[in-house]
Amino acid sequence: MKNNYAKKLLFLAVLVFANVVYSQSKLMDSNYASVIQNYLNQNKDKFGLTVSDISDLSVENEYLSKNTKITHVYVNQRYQGVAILNAVSSVAIKGNVVFYYANNFIGNINDKVNTVSPQLTAEQAIQNAATSLNLGSVQNLDLVKNVNNNNYVFSNGNISQTNIPVRLVYFQNETGNLILSWDLSIHTLDGANWYSVRVDAISGEILNQNDWILACNFGDNQHENHNHLVNASNQKSSDFQLFKDASYLADGSQYNVFALPVESPNHGSRTLLSEPADLNASPFGWHDTNGVTGAEFTNTRGNNVWAMEDRNGNDGFGYSPNGSTSLNFDFPLNLNQQPELYQDASITNLFYVNNVMHDIWYQYGFDEVSGNFQANNYGNGGVGNDYVRADGQDGNGIGGSINNAFFGTPPDGSNPTMRMFLWSAPAGVQDLVTVNNSSALGTYAAVNPATTAPNNLPGIGTTPVTADLQLVNDNSANPSEGCSAIASVAGKIAVIRRGTCPFVDKIQNAQNAGAVAVIVVNHNNPTNDPAYVPYVNMAGETNPPLNIPSVFMNFADGELLIAAMQNETVNVTLQGPSPFMLDGSLDNMIVAHEYGHGISNRLTGGPSQAGCLTNQTQMGEGWSDWFALMITLQDTEDYAAGRGMVTYASGQGVNGIGIRNAKYATDFSVNGFTYADTNNAAQVSQPHGIGFIWATMLYDLTEAYVAKYGFDADIYNGTGGNNKVMQLVLDGLKLQPCGPDFIEARDALLAADMATTGGEDQCMIWEVFANRGLGINASGGSKFSRTDQVEDFTMPLETDPSLQNCTSLSVDEFRQSDYRVYPNPTNNNLFIKTNKSFGQVTMTITDMNGRQVYNKQVDLFGTVEINMNTLQSGIYILNMKGLNIDANHKIIKN
């Protein structure tokens, strides 16, 4: 399934100028109907369509995008007046011509339709769905509205929170056939699910179902736990606050929150913000709903979001903090207590992040006509009455009420729902060691020993221990291992290297010598032993029990402290994490991620759709991660080292890997994932892992834009590379078809750049995606499969002459066409063949655990051979770095 981007940028003449209208579920009577129909008639063969396939179309949504000046028209394919589910193509009209067309129509539909007459009624379809989903007995089901032929709205039937819409559609199954079906949605009474269901209109069988409420299951990934606690004191300024429009209608509001770009309590302190609402996006403030001066609500409720608690998990309307008539939401926060005791501060933060997500992304095109979330659209088009319902400290999670977050996105005009949960108290590897002075100043990870069994080693509690470090000396051949009686370390934190004797013996010797605490430092792994682990959980029993705390550090950090101790007095504080659960509403990344689901769902396929991101390789989780990364991005971002996703709520330190397969990083030794990894069902989950790979590419693209255009701290109205890429991604979401794969999403970004800059950044965009395997010859495979994607690292240099001199990401006009790496996969040796001299180059190979297994300097010209016989089977990253080249390649060793 080869995609050629160049063929998609088509410019055709039209006859008349037409104004933009907003149209929902009408026949093909758009002002641009003739333009679109003519385009399809002329290009039907290119897309494998017949005259019949494009003879019955309806416009689901049509709106103007202010930035691109593109009119987005979302056209649904039908058969004899019945819509084909998700057969929605995105048509971009600019300058009265079809600028870009993203096809999602089905070919030869006459041969695929099973019937035109339903045998099952709409009411029977609801009954069948309720039975299949174990929702209980349907009662008092009444017809509320007959929208049009075979399109109804029924009452809730005592199984749904909302009325139940039902319409007749054709559903395409995996064999390609079109099955006449009833399409309906049920929002369960407990709020945990919002089922979208297809019921066979002949047999009554449930053909397909998905859930508009996305359970992100953040806590189910394999990762090390870390923790890093920072005192949540107040600051009185925010970089973002400097850019608020001075003409904003003052309402006196103030909010004590973890203000962006601060990511969480681990990453900074709270800030007392004054009137942070954006004039353009929220012209009457965050507490208005009627468009008249003066707040309608004094609690955490307004036009964009209603934030409340739901600790009993009944999905009702719970408690919201009240700021009084002065709208003062300055509540105390002490994290060393049960979360319910700081719910005012937590829900205020939840209210704040939802509002800034609304205001920020409004600037880039997530506005009323494109389906954003507002109670009152203030006369700006679209469908209102759909503010976000955000529940904090929710008590009704799937699989337990912790370590999770939900977001449900119905079509435009219905309220989305956000549900935030508590997270487990931190455990495992945490930031327990704080160096207060010296060249080693900073925080370091360590393991707190298990303390549950009697007489196990006591770990660090919440009461800090502060003292100078002292390396032990037991006067043996290995004096710093502390296996024998230790010379006095009275009043010191003893530092001991790991050795051959038991941990309890070392700590006992230090305690006998007067130590107030112990840090045990791991040994090195010079032979790259695959069984080596950087941290171990020390345990053991002594009689009498030990009474000083101890922690275990990795080799690199421990030796850094030991080196500093040689010439400096190193003072350290050891302090454990709070034993209390963590609150997801204080992790701005989680809130932003969840809100991001609403953005990608409303923009893909048009705002009246809600199920366009359900194909096997859909990237919804990736866009959501990227939204969270962007609002917390700073000019100090280290793109190579990268950043973990959701480190606070998952109990990790600020440098933790996060909840994904790797950090988001441009360095392949940190994050070496490429497009082909979407096929790896064993190690890359669906949809989170697939989304992670897409977000990795977007993170790389962000770095490229910032490198080219700089960083602008004004996230609302800035002109930096970060602002440009934010605009690009929003525009791309609007251009892509319903059910996009990686290829179609990439092409939509390229088209968005063409629309706004005339193609100024085509080279850069292509290079970023080709570097991760999404080159010109990459294939998305079938949308019914997640294991048939094909990666390719080729730039479109031959098919598009304008790209033949692409050098935006290269070093000194380096291009991949100047060399070849083969064979890949390899059984034995690897060869690099070049057609020009790159001079002295350092060749390194790194395994997927970040360990360097090969390092050699070569004169890269002609053919260079690398012996891989000694390496185990697996995936490696080859880096070639010199004055004229800096390139990474994923290598597979069979």
From TrEMBL:
Keywords attached to this entry: Hydrolase, Metal-binding, Metalloprotease, Protease, Secreted, Signal, Zinc, Zymogen
Superkingdom: Bacteria
The keyword Metal-binding is assigned to this record: yes
Classification via InterPro entries: Fungal_virulence_M36, PA_dom_sf, PA_domain, Peptidase_M36, Peptidase_M4/M1_CTD_sf, Secre_tail
A cellular-component GO term for this protein: extracellular space
Secretion signal, residue range per the UniProt entry: 1-23
Molecular function via GO: metalloendopeptidase activity; zinc ion binding
CC cofactor: Zn(2+)
SUPFAM superfamilies, per database record: Metalloproteases ('zincins'), catalytic domain, PA domain
An individual GO BP term: proteolysis
Domain (Secretion system C-terminal sorting): residue spans on this chain: 821-892
Keyword Hydrolase: yes
Location(s) in or outside the cell: Secreted
Pfam families tied to this protein: PA, Peptidase_M36, Por_Secre_tail
Coiled-coil blocks: none
Gene3D superfamilies associated with the record: 2.60.40.3080, 3.10.170.10, 3.50.30.30, Neutral Protease Domain 2 (1.10.390.10)
Ranges where the PA domain occurs: 470-561
Family: Belongs to the peptidase M36 family.
Protein name, as recorded: Por secretion system C-terminal sorting domain-containing protein
